[in-house]
Amino acid sequence: MRAYIYDNLPGDQRLPHDSGRAVDVDELRGLGVLYYRFPSLEGVDKLAAERGYKNRDEITVSPEKMGDIYEDKVKMFFNEHLHEDEEIRYIRGGQGYFDVRTRDEDWVRVQLEKDDLLILPAGIYHRFTTDESNYVHAMRLFKEDPKWTPLNRCPQLDDNAVRKEYVGQFLSG
Ligand code: KMT
Ligand code: NI
């Protein structure tokens, strides 16, 4: 895992876009974003049990697996959105970038690789993309049924109760 401020320069979303400003795990924690490294599934199983996660699935995001819809999927994952539940992703192979918003509306780009697990809190604005390798294999963890409805960012979403709760807990004061 490596995290840094996104440079906001034009260019393919899959390029690193590294501004050169590093972000450490304490800063991530300040945004409610938790990082773990689990070399085996044991650690993941334990975390899932502790947090009440009953279900999981695995997804491979690559042109080989997805064919013609790959480019559309990658663009969709990159739309800024939030969820009303936390989002947990465990990377089993390849790499990918999760971008999360700071209180200053910068993006922190979190580069994940095999064995990295990231927890995004409910209500945080974020987006995802593969990198130049165009390959990531990830496990998605769910408390109940696989459901992770993305709510795309728009002004009215600031009134969403889960968003307000997130802002109150992590972005104010
Ligand atoms: C997400 O939340 O954007 C995804 O599930 C993308 C694939 S998992 C790395
Ligand atoms: Ni999401």
UniProtKB/TrEMBL annotation:
<dbReference type="GO" id="GO:0010309">
    <property type="term" value="F:acireductone dioxygenase [iron(II)-requiring] activity"/>
</dbReference>
<dbReference type="InterPro" id="IPR027496">
    <property type="entry name" value="ARD_euk"/>
</dbReference>
<dbReference type="GO" id="GO:0010308">
    <property type="term" value="F:acireductone dioxygenase (Ni2+-requiring) activity"/>
</dbReference>
<dbReference type="GO" id="GO:0005634">
    <property type="term" value="C:nucleus"/>
</dbReference>
<keyword id="KW-0223">Dioxygenase</keyword>
<dbReference type="Pfam" id="PF03079">
    <property type="entry name" value="ARD"/>
</dbReference>
<dbReference type="GO" id="GO:0016151">
    <property type="term" value="F:nickel cation binding"/>
</dbReference>
<comment type="function">
    <text>Catalyzes 2 different reactions between oxygen and the acireductone 1,2-dihydroxy-3-keto-5-methylthiopentene (DHK-MTPene) depending upon the metal bound in the active site. Fe-containing acireductone dioxygenase (Fe-ARD) produces formate and 2-keto-4-methylthiobutyrate (KMTB), the alpha-ketoacid precursor of methionine in the methionine recycle pathway. Ni-containing acireductone dioxygenase (Ni-ARD) produces methylthiopropionate, carbon monoxide and formate, and does not lie on the methionine recycle pathway.</text>
</comment>
<dbReference type="InterPro" id="IPR011051">
    <property type="entry name" value="RmlC_Cupin_sf"/>
</dbReference>
<dbReference type="GO" id="GO:0019509">
    <property type="term" value="P:L-methionine salvage from methylthioadenosine"/>
</dbReference>
<comment type="similarity">
    <text>Belongs to the acireductone dioxygenase (ARD) family.</text>
</comment>
<keyword id="KW-0408">Iron</keyword>
<feature type="binding site">
    <location>
        <position position="87"/>
    </location>
    <ligand>
        <name>Fe(2+)</name>
    </ligand>
</feature>
<keyword id="KW-0539">Nucleus</keyword>
<feature type="binding site">
    <location>
        <position position="87"/>
    </location>
    <ligand>
        <name>Ni(2+)</name>
    </ligand>
</feature>
<feature type="binding site">
    <location>
        <position position="81"/>
    </location>
    <ligand>
        <name>Fe(2+)</name>
    </ligand>
</feature>
<feature type="binding site">
    <location>
        <position position="81"/>
    </location>
    <ligand>
        <name>Ni(2+)</name>
    </ligand>
</feature>
<feature type="binding site">
    <location>
        <position position="126"/>
    </location>
    <ligand>
        <name>Fe(2+)</name>
    </ligand>
</feature>
<keyword id="KW-0963">Cytoplasm</keyword>
<comment type="pathway">
    <text>Amino-acid biosynthesis; L-methionine biosynthesis via salvage pathway; L-methionine from S-methyl-5-thio-alpha-D-ribose 1-phosphate: step 5/6.</text>
</comment>
<keyword id="KW-0533">Nickel</keyword>
<keyword id="KW-0560">Oxidoreductase</keyword>
<protein>
    <recommendedName>
        <fullName>Acireductone dioxygenase</fullName>
        <ecNumber>1.13.11.54</ecNumber>
        <ecNumber>1.13.11.53</ecNumber>
    </recommendedName>
</protein>
<dbReference type="InterPro" id="IPR004313">
    <property type="entry name" value="ARD"/>
</dbReference>
<keyword id="KW-0486">Methionine biosynthesis</keyword>
<dbReference type="GO" id="GO:0005506">
    <property type="term" value="F:iron ion binding"/>
</dbReference>
<feature type="binding site">
    <location>
        <position position="83"/>
    </location>
    <ligand>
        <name>Fe(2+)</name>
    </ligand>
</feature>
<feature type="binding site">
    <location>
        <position position="126"/>
    </location>
    <ligand>
        <name>Ni(2+)</name>
    </ligand>
</feature>
<keyword id="KW-0028">Amino-acid biosynthesis</keyword>
<feature type="binding site">
    <location>
        <position position="83"/>
    </location>
    <ligand>
        <name>Ni(2+)</name>
    </ligand>
</feature>
<keyword id="KW-0479">Metal-binding</keyword>
<dbReference type="GO" id="GO:0005737">
    <property type="term" value="C:cytoplasm"/>
</dbReference>
<dbReference type="InterPro" id="IPR014710">
    <property type="entry name" value="RmlC-like_jellyroll"/>
</dbReference>
